[in-house]
Amino acid sequence: MGNSKVVALYITICVVSFVVSKIIMAILCYRRCRRKQMVVQDSLSGGTLVMFKSSKMDTLKSNMLLKKTMKLTNKDIIGSGGYGTVYKLTIDESTSFAVKRLNRISAEQDRGFERELVAMGDIKHRNIVTLHGYYSTNHYNLLIYELMPNGSLDQVLHGKSGPRKVLDWPSRYKIAVLAARGLSYLHHDCIPHVIHRDIKSSNILLDHNMEARVSDFGLATLMEPDKTHVSTLVAGTFGYLAPEYFDTGKATAKGDVYSFGVVLLELLTGRKPTDESFLEEGTKLVTWVKAVVQEKREEYVVDRNLEEFPIEEINHVFTIAWMCLEAEPCIRPTMAEVVKMLEQIKVNALA
Ligand SMILES: Nc1ncnc2c1ncn2[C@@H]1O[C@H](COP(=O)(O)OP(=O)(O)OP(=O)(O)O)[C@@H](O)[C@H]1O
């Protein structure tokens, strides 16, 4: 066989193998997608219901879910935020969900909706609120989440009619560690990595055991593993945003670390970072705490309800909060380091 024939044979083999491998990959991806979700078209509303596969969803009839979803009323509202209203959807005595309704106003919101789904669909972790599915019509979108019976950390710490219950130090410490684990999972273990972009106490929800889970990926942006940041639209919540965000508008994992530092201060002080009194005084929680600590009056910042608990542990968490709140992002620890440091406190306390 001449040289040219050998080359031609090699090229043919390469091209055929490439095409076959692509076809196999496409079939595998298609099967995986089908296995992972069930899609139901509702002929009445013209909407589409997508249920992600899980032991909970597998036992649920899609018709029943659709019927109950269509019957949600104002009486079922359990909260509302910048993106829409959250309802409690009760299927039966043992099965309930939290349904977030997003109005379909602009194309931008639509993109946000898709982004949330892409980020959430695959994410399963005990400290992350699970997205079970979604329903989509021309007029609105619904996200179907697992229901967190104890609401948000924000409601528990500073509910409208006063704190819902006074959280003791062990509960606050546990919430800090578990929320840190959830966020660390997003930053380091998800592929692609996820930047939350809106870490705050109303996005830390509490299950029946008061165990914390991170929720709300409406603003999350997927980050390729080799990228250090992503450029995005201005988002997040004043009082929790890292200072560099105001200059650059770039969401980064270190920006989430800063916001987590604010949540730690919130747990330690019992003060709400978005409190109007801060705005009126032209300050914010972080600046206020820093000023008081500089004046060596730390005892004024710690929540009175924590007075009888071990001050060494509380001070340790303060130290970690300050590390997270460093003005220079690169000096801040990663969330994996924050988890380790927080866990270490209890090891030391138990020793
Ligand atoms: N899965 C859930 N289980 C139980 N309650 C929930 C759930 N998701 C949200 N909530 C409640 O609904 C409230 C509003 O949530 P939502 O995520 O819409 O807004 P937010 O986090 O307060 O603000 P933003 O939209 O700016 O992030 C929460 O504070 C919480 O009390």
TrEMBL record:
One Gene Ontology cellular component annotation?
plasma membrane
List where this protein forms a coiled coil. Answer: none
UniProt-listed InterPro entries: Kinase-like_dom_sf, Prot_kinase_dom, Protein_kinase_ATP_BS, Ser/Thr_kinase_AS
Question: Which Pfam family, just one, is annotated for this protein?
Answer: Pkinase
Extract the GO molecular function terms from the UniProt entry: ATP binding; protein kinase activity; protein serine/threonine kinase activity
Localization of this protein: Membrane
- Signal peptide residues are none
Q: Return the PROSITE patterns for the record.
A: PROTEIN_KINASE_ATP, PROTEIN_KINASE_DOM, PROTEIN_KINASE_ST
Q: Could you tell me the membrane topology recorded for this protein?
A: Single-pass membrane protein
Q: One biological-process term from Gene Ontology?
A: signal transduction
* Residues the entry annotates as binding ATP: K100
Does Transmembrane helix appear among the keywords? Answer: yes
Protein kinase domain location:
72-345
The alphabetical list of record keywords is: ATP-binding, Kinase, Membrane, Nucleotide-binding, Phosphoprotein, Receptor, Serine/threonine-protein kinase, Transferase, Transmembrane, Transmembrane helix
Major localization class: membrane
Which residue windows are transmembrane per the record? 6-30
**Family per UniProt?**
Belongs to the protein kinase superfamily.
Task: Name it.
Answer: Receptor-like serine/threonine-protein kinase At1g78530 isoform X1
